[in-house]
Amino acid sequence: MQFTPNVFPVARMNFLATLLFAFLLTLALTPLAGWLGRRWGLVDAPGGRRKHRGVIPRTGGLALFGGFFVTVLLITVLPELLPPPWAIWFPVRNDPNEIIRLTALLVGCAYCAFFGLLDDRFGFRAGPQYLIQFGAAAIAIVGMIFIKHVNDPLTGAFFFGDDGFPWWIVWPLTVFWFMGMMNTINFLDGASGLVAGVTAILSAVLALHMIFKAEPPQLSVALLPLALLGVALGFLPFNFSPARIFMGSSGSYFLGFAVAALGIIGGARLATVLMVVGLPALEVGWLMITRWRRGVSPGQGGRDHLHFRLLDMGVSERALVLGYWLFCAALGALTLLVDSTVAKLVSLIILTGVAFGVFVWAARRSPGRV
User: Fold this and answer.
1) Rounded distance, CA 191 to CA 49, Å?
2) What's the pTM?
3) Of 134, 66, 138, 139, nearest in space to 102 by CA
4) Alpha helices in 189-316 (DSSP H)
5) Is residue 2 part of a domain?
6) Which tens digits make up the pLDDT trace of 35-48?
């Protein structure tokens, strides 16, 4: 493993400031989001597939979005507004298109939070949800957040050469990536603290990749996953079991979009993202196939998710969530410690086999309900 040494001290202070600001802002916004949820009647009561106790607001996504949006907006505009003596506190942007991508990131996050809040209010069916996800992907593509290059794991060279994919591949591939990641986060949101913790782990892994393993280091871009890490950590004290607030669709839509976008903005770290969220991503495909075979809409909610099956078997919610976190953290550490692309590909293949084995085992032990 080759780490780039001597990240200059000013950048380190900026990293810490970004992380701390996002954390404290979200920590302050979350009670406000809960109050709004109760005032607007956007709450979840026990019943059906919901097994929690008491009436809990599902507007935590507003705090997640607000903390991230304000933090990223500040680190975007402040370097342009501050005089030179103060501007040096921010890492230099080496990509001339970075401002365009940051703008698309902010617009896409606002779009997802808004339509997610509408989903929380009106309960959209699968069709409108897919249209919202497609719209989010379109915003990203227009803002130059798209998948243009993917490495061949065997040779290290780009597929289709240095020019990358043609547009007739770029568009559907990017749309598939965004819709897949947004569905993955949405499907995973079923246990208190699960999504926020997995997001925090993924954000930390992405930031470490950008700071220490990228050549040259992507210091300005690394502020983005650090902001998302701070947001997730600021939300967790209220969302971990026993939860006092849920993130709702506004949170899962926003986080799914943000994770998908950061995986591309950070130099197409798609394999890194897939390693960390590999288990829930594979489960999305598994659920869609099994539901289709049973004649059930793939987008319909139910307790046939792996985390719900394990909870129904008697696994405690805290133990389940901590187990998921440890599993994702272990895979994230693997991406940092192993440089070989082939080794990562083999790991993904092994993960796929193990995951499907777990899905079959859980389905037989706990049939689940849709």
Assistant:
1) 11
2) 0.89
3) 139
4) 194-208, 219-239, 248-265, 270-276, 278-293, 306-312
5) no
6) 999 999 999 987 55
Mean pLDDT of the chain: 85
DSSP 209: I
Report CA torsion sign: 203, 205, 208, 209: negative
Q: Considering the domain boundaries, does residue 317 fall inside one?
A: yes
d(C-alpha 204, C-alpha 113), whole Å: 23
- 3-class DSSP state for residue 106? helix
| Number of domains present in the structure of the chain | 1
- Plot region of 144 (φ>0 → left; ψ -120 to 50 → alpha; else → beta): left
Task: Give the alpha-carbon dihedral of 239, 240, 242, 246, to 10 degrees.
Answer: 20
Residue type, 25: L
Element (H, E) at 319: helix 317-337
Contacts of 286 (CB under 8 A, 6+ apart): 355, 356, 359
**What is the pairing mode between strands 43-44 and 56-57?**
antiparallel
What's the half-sphere exposure (Cβ side, CA atoms, 13 Å) at 131? 7
pLDDT digit string (tens) for 339-351?
777 777 777 788 7
The string of pLDDT tens digits covering residues 51-106 is: 666 899 999 999 999 999 999 999 888 877 766 666 666 777 777 788 999 999 99
Domain presence at residue 168: yes
User: CB-based contacts of 241: which residues, under 8 Å, 6+ apart?
Assistant: 191, 192, 193, 317, 318, 321
Domain encompassing residue 354: 9-365
DSSP 3-state of 92 = coil
The neighbouring-strand residues paired with 44 are: 56
Asked if the structure places residue 4 within a domain, the reply is no
Beta strands in the chain (DSSP E): 43-44, 56-57
Q: Name residue, tokens 């979005």.
A: 65
Q: Which two tokens stand for residue 301?
A: 């909610």
Closest-CA residue to 112 (of 38, 39, 62, 172): 62
| Phi, psi values for residue 14, rounded to 5° | -65, -40
